[in-house]
Amino acid sequence: MEASIAIQVLPKAESDERLIEVVDQVIAYIQSTGYNYQVGAFETSIEGDYEGLMEVVKNCQLIAIKAGAPEVSAYVKITYRPEGEVLTIAKKTKKHEH
């Protein structure tokens, strides 16, 4: 695994409930990709190959728009190591689970 990302998708929505509905559709898409991922309160972490993850980032925007959001913002953090492995989600978070 050469890359990991954290993505926070913020669709414009008329209510908190509608915002959650759109974000849920984005998360369902992420789940469908087959990549290892972890949903957090503010962002979702995903790990895999760099090119594939960049496609996921792009598609998250498109899914939010398709779900009815008139506008979407996203904040993305990327770790990329083309000649090796990046730290996995499990290595970063396992000791903090409760």
From TrEMBL:
Top-rank taxon, per record = Bacteria
Under InterPro entries, the record lists: MTH1187/YkoF-like, Thiamine_BP, UPF0045_domain
Pfam families under this entry? Answer: Thiamine_BP
Positions of the Thiamine-binding protein domain: 6-97
Q: Gene3D superfamilies given for it?
A: 3.30.70.930
Family to which this protein belongs: Belongs to the UPF0045 family.
Question: What is this protein's record name?
Answer: Thiamine-binding protein domain-containing protein
From the broadest rank down, the organism's phylogenetic lineage runs:
Bacteria, Bacillati, Bacillota, Bacilli, Lactobacillales
